[in-house]
Specification:
Structural class: alpha/beta
Strand content: 5-15%
Radius of gyration: 19 Å
Protein name: Short-chain dehydrogenase/reductase SDR
Keywords: Oxidoreductase
Distance between the termini: 18 Å
CATH superfamily: NAD(P)-binding Rossmann-like Domain
Helix content: 25-40%
Strand order of the largest sheet: 3-2-1-4-5-6-7
Order of helices and strands: EHEHEHEHEHEHE
Shape: globular
Oligomer: single chain
Number of strands: 7
CATH topology: Rossmann fold
GO molecular function: oxidoreductase activity
């Protein structure tokens, strides 16, 4: 339903006005997994707005190249690479290629992931692996490859992981993703503690709903956001807001912060109350386990 006119809904600055100087990442290279589209592309663009050169990793090289072209249009160097983040040899080769093209990688954004609504009892082994291995194995393999290189160089760095706000509660039809994103958040804390002596910071964003061209939820229809009434802030997030916060955690402004999981969801995870719609088990929902098709 529409948000009542008397409610105050804060809107973000336009994409062209990032909350940090345009040279804050100057001379640095960031590698973004799953950076060719969606939330990964938002992360990549946010780093580019701060002057970072960007290596875009993706399983689909054409999509990675398309993302790299959009990033280059922001005035930085970019390079697209095809990589399956579940394969350690492929990850090492991708880092080699990225560093040959753009120089040493000092920043890492782990965004690669997969998700689709399915009842827990219907998840096959392949479906489970498809979601969990990308988020868990991929995040670990890319992070450890990054850390080994930074430690060998005697230099620090920063990592940001794309997690999800439902890691504390789960989400209907998301047993695979909730498990993977929870492991990713726990990994964030452990890696931060292990690598702090080397000057490597690791943080995560527990993201809520940020509609984009490839998302399956929250897209506006006839000017009305279908999810806005369930979010205390009165709206879903703008995709560049997620990108900006992700990049901000890697700036010197957050130089003391590590091992943190920051919730960015417009307060959606806080809305539990006695006055709520009746619970409908996921299997009994006419419009699918997520509540929409």
């Amino acid at each position: 339903m529409p948000i009542p006119a008397h409610h105050i809904v804060a809107t973000p600055p336009p994409f062209e006005a990032p909350p940090y100087p345009g040279d804050i990442f100057a001379g640095q290279t960031v590698l973004v997994t799953g950076g060719g589209s969606g939330m990964g592309l938002a992360m990549a663009k946010a780093f580019a707005q701060g002057g970072a050169d960007v290596a875009v990793l993706g399983r689909n090289l054409d999509r990675a190249r398309d993302g790299a072209e959009q990033i280059a249009a922001l005035g930085v160097r970019s390079h697209a690479i095809s990589c399956d983040v579940r394969n350690p040899d492929a990850v090492a080769a991708a880092f080699d290629e990225a560093e040959e093209a753009l120089g040493p990688i000092g920043l890492l954004a782990n965004n690669a992931g997969a998700n689709f609504p399915i009842l827990a009892e219907d998840i096959s082994r392949n479906a489970w692996n498809a979601v969990t291995r990308i988020a868990i194995d991929g995040t670990f393999l890319c992070s450890s490859e990054f850390a080994r290189r930074r430690i060998a160089r005697g230099e620090g760095g920063a990592i940001v992981n794309n997690s999800a706000q439902y890691i504390w509660t789960g989400f209907p039809g998301d047993a695979h993703s909730a498990a993977a994103k929870t492991a990713q958040a726990t990994m964030t804390k452990r890696l931060a503690a292990d690598w702090a002596p080397y000057g490597i910071r690791v943080n995560a964003i527990a993201a809520g709903f940020f509609p984009h061209a490839d998302s399956v939820s929250g897209r506006s229809e006839d000017g009305v956001e279908p999810l806005q009434a369930m979010i205390p802030a009165g709206r879903t997030g703008s995709i560049w807001e997620f990108g900006w916060l992700s990049a901000m955690t890697c700036t010197p402004f957050f130089g003391e912060m590590t091992g943190q999981v920051i919730v960015q969801d417009g307060g959606e995870s806080l809305r539990r109350s006695l006055i709520m719609p009746d619970f409908i088990p996921p299997r009994e929902r006419a419009d699918g386990p997520w509540g929409w098709q």
